[in-house]
Amino acid sequence: MGTELLDLDDAQQRVIGHAHPLRPEHVLLEHAGGRVLARDVTASIPLPRFDHSTMDGYAIVATDQSSWSLPVAFEVSAGSSPQELMPDTACRIFTGAPLPRFATAVVPQEHVRREGNVIHGSRLVFPGAFVRKTGEDVEPGSQVLRRGVRLLPGALSLLAMLDETRVFVHRAPRVAILCTGNEIRLAGTMGTPFQVPESVSIGVLALALQARASAFVLPKVSDERHATARALDLALAQSDLVVTVGGVSVGDHDHVRGALDDVGARLEFWKVAIKPGKQIAFGYKDNALFLGLPGNPASALVTFALFGMPLLRALQGDRTPFASRMSGHLEHAHPRTLERDEIARACFRWDNGKLYAKIHRQQASGAATSLAQSDGVVIVPRGEGEMAEGARCDAIRWIDF
Question: Which fold has domain 8-22+172-315?
Answer without folding.
Answer: Molybdenum Cofactor Biosythetic Enzyme; Chain A (3.40.980)
